[in-house]
């Protein structure tokens, strides 16, 4: 059974940095396209960043481009999200997700494209 566990969330001030981790078990991690989503209260789940399984190519949502960096370490079955210059609008629960196989780029930003999810980690940015 695939399990994803996020960590690294917390309460920070605007302008600070934070690094989230997602560790995977029960799956061939290197075979999964991996993605970060976030969800703020009262809002839909939002695409943050994605990293392809083989090429390592990365993709970002417009609101985080230039501030966030996604990476993965297949040997450690882990994915990371380095978040810099955090803003109040980044406050949300952050989730990592793994695809069920064969994820195409056009479906990358859709939560319904992912079969496996972590429990989420809270990031709160204060002024």
Number of strands: 11
Helix content: under 10%
First CA to last CA: what distance?
40 Å
> Based on CA inertia axes, which overall geometry fits?
globular
Number of contiguous helices: 0
Percent of residues in β-strands: over 45%
SSE sequence, one letter per element: EEEEEEEEEEE
Poorly predicted regions are none
The rounded Rg comes to 14 Å
What is the typical, i.e. mean, pLDDT?
96
Supply the helix-strand structural class: mainly beta
Largest sheet, if any? 7 strands, mixed
Task: Describe the protein's architecture and organization.
- 0% of the residues lie in helices and 49% in strands.
- With 127 residues, the chain is mostly beta strands.
- The strands form two sheets. Strands 2, 4, 5, 6, 9, 10 and 11 form a seven-stranded mixed sheet that branches.
Outline of the structure:
Helix content is 0%, strand content 49%. The protein has strands at residues 3-7, 10-13, 18-25, 34-39, 46-51, 58-60, 68-73, 78-83, 92-99, 114-117, 121-126. A hairpin with a 6-residue loop joins strand 5 and strand 6 (58-60).
